[in-house]
Write a structure and sequence with these properties.
2 copies of one chain form a homodimer. Chain A has 10 helices and no strands. Helix content of chain A is about 75%, strand content about 0%. The first copy, chain A, is elongated, with a radius of gyration of 20 Å. Chain A has one domain: Orthogonal Bundle (Tetracycline Repressor, domain 2). In chain A, helix 1 packs across helix 2, helix 1 crosses helix 4 and helix 4 packs antiparallel against helix 5. At the A-B interface, helix 6, helix 7, helix 8 and helix 9 of A face helix 6, helix 7, helix 8 and helix 9 of B.
Chain lengths: ~210, ~210
């Protein structure tokens, strides 16, 4: 039995608290004092983990993306043929991030305005991690003769770009309110993209022959 | 010969001045006084046309989109088969808007932070205008037997969503700096989408047979 919280546990507790306070107060009104109180630790301890409120919230976004990447990696490894896996991964990309901010859509605009330049820098790194996972499935699909494309890494990034407009960052709070509309549009974009990746006649016939 | 400026002329002069001042001062620092001085008219005259600085800048964005829509309508009417026209229209969408803000990328983040909720509302209307133009070309392509899709209006919106992440609104100032990278990515996204729209074998063979 472990009775002492580890460094990672405390970090996670702080990020959990940030998630709740973003919903309760919004980004601008939330303070490091509020965070300390919500976790039930001293403010000094928060500063041992994060140099600023900004860094807490950026790390909170990082954690959302890290969790999404775990989900995507799971899908990449286990179920179905490459198009089915890729479809699930790309729709998951949109819906997981949608759900992650669903309880504080009201204050999202506030948060995005305040952190925009830093978020964009972080997003570069998130893009790279995600595109590696996607590229692996693209290569699987090419080996199976289902997909046709030039370069897996480039194509992965193109898929991320084409689904990027549906991420919370790019939607108004009002649009974010309608989960089923976001999902329907995500499915349409992903279907069109997947259709664009499919190998034409020859390899497709080969694939069908194999089954 | 026309010697008196019309209402529309003055409106355009104010928007031209806003365009220059956004580059010189940025959104937050620009005032209605600066605008009046730049146009060479009284501040009262500016207020006859626009109730606020915010409204000037939103109208400036509207004008960019209106001009883009004119360009797209021209392409829709004149040149090439449907896929070629659609390709040009979608790449134009990204590059025209890129070029429109190129001289004030430094202050773009500032403008976007300040106007985000209002810009998102405007964007809904811009989307509708643009998707009507795109839908017409989609229908042409279906008549030619080149494209396959269910509903033209929905598909047009999906194409706008999938290219939306490349609009200035969604790029960091740094990313915006590299025109050729944005264009290359736009071309990749558009090619993948067009590929997804192409009718499979039967109608494609028919089309090739026609030539």
């Amino acid at each position: 039995m472990r009775s002492v919280a580890t460094r990672e546990d405390i970090r996670d507790l702080i990020l959990d608290a940030a998630d709740r306070l973003l919903a309760r107060y919004g980004y601008r009104k939330m303070t490091m004092d509020d965070l300390a109180q919500e976790v039930g630790i001293g403010k000094g301890t928060i500063y041992l983990h994060f140099p600023s409120k900004e860094e807490v919230v950026l790390s909170h976004v990082d954690r959302i993306v890290a969790r999404l990447n775990e989900e995507q990696s799971k899908i990449a490894r286990v179920c179905g043929d490459a198009p089915a896996r890729l479809r699930r991964m790309l729709v998951k990309r949109v819906m997981f991030r949608f759900d992650s901010v669903q309880h504080y859509t009201e204050s999202l605009s506030d948060l995005l305005s305040a952190l925009r330049p830093n978020l964009l820098t972080r997003r570069q790194r998130h893009f790279e991690d995600e595109s590696r996972i996607i590229a692996a499935v693209l290569r699987d699909g090419r080996r199976e003769g289902v997909f046709e494309f030039r370069d897996a890494a480039t194509t992965a990034r193109t898929l991320l770009t084409a689904t990027g407009a549906l991420l919370p960052y790019n939607l108004s709070a009002r649009e974010l309110g309608k989960r089923e509309d976001v999902e329907a549009e995500a499915v349409r974009v992903v279907e069109l993209l997947l259709n664009g990746l499919l190998a034409r006649t020859d390899s497709k016939a080969k694939r069908n022959g194999k089954r």
